[in-house]
Amino acid sequence: MKRTHRIGWITLFLIIIPILLCAQTRPNRGMNNCGSDTQYARMFNPGTIQTTNVIVEKVETFTPQKGMTVGTRLIANKNDKIVVIHLGPVWFINNQEIQVEKGDTLEIVGSLIEYEGEEVIVAKTVQRGEDILTLRNDFGRPVWAGWMRGQGKGRIN
Q: Which pLDDT tens digit goes with each residue over 17-36?
């Protein structure tokens, strides 16, 4: 009986350890498409960067393209006009010190693009008061590209 018990534990160990190792070496399996090498990310146009002051009406999630990780976007009011602002992947946005909420007054610097037939702003920076959350560089490269590997972090200036 003791030998069978030991074989059971060894079998369990041999099955679980490889699964755990694979999960750790590929933390974003299926989500590696949220960097700067996707068609969606290439929509960012440095030539259309603008500064916009808005009041947040809603923070919601969306999927930018089929197969991509879920993103965060804002529905905001700019001079009584609704504006949609794309921030970045939920997993990244939720790990930042700045958490945007309904009613926040923000200064958004971002690229005005056409997405699914509508104009949206892909945010480069989000400023609330003195706090600035940097999401992309001047060329649109997301700061989260490589973030899970410790190569970049969103930062508050």
A: 555 444 444 344 344 445 55
